[in-house]
Amino acid sequence: MHACVCARAVRPKRSTLKSRADVTLDRTYVFKNSKREWTGVPVMAANMDTTGTFGVAAVMAKQKCFTAMHKFYSTEDWVA
User: Fold this and answer.
1) pLDDT digits 0-9 by tens, 24-53
2) Would you say 52 and 46 are in contact if contact means Cβ atoms under 8 Å apart?
């Protein structure tokens, strides 16, 4: 059974926005177990060996984005 690819095509949605400048990318998430809320842009720097550095995390945090830290940091690196 194969579905037609055209049946899954993304279709434009009507909008009342007048400009792309009116778009907000912020989303609020409530975490299931802790019930804590986070509001920001759901973008994460990840998928490379050492993309997740403290420098990248600082820049991404200013834009309200995530960084997946790489696994090679020691406990001392995190405390510093």
Assistant:
1) 899 999 999 999 999 999 888 877 777 888
2) yes
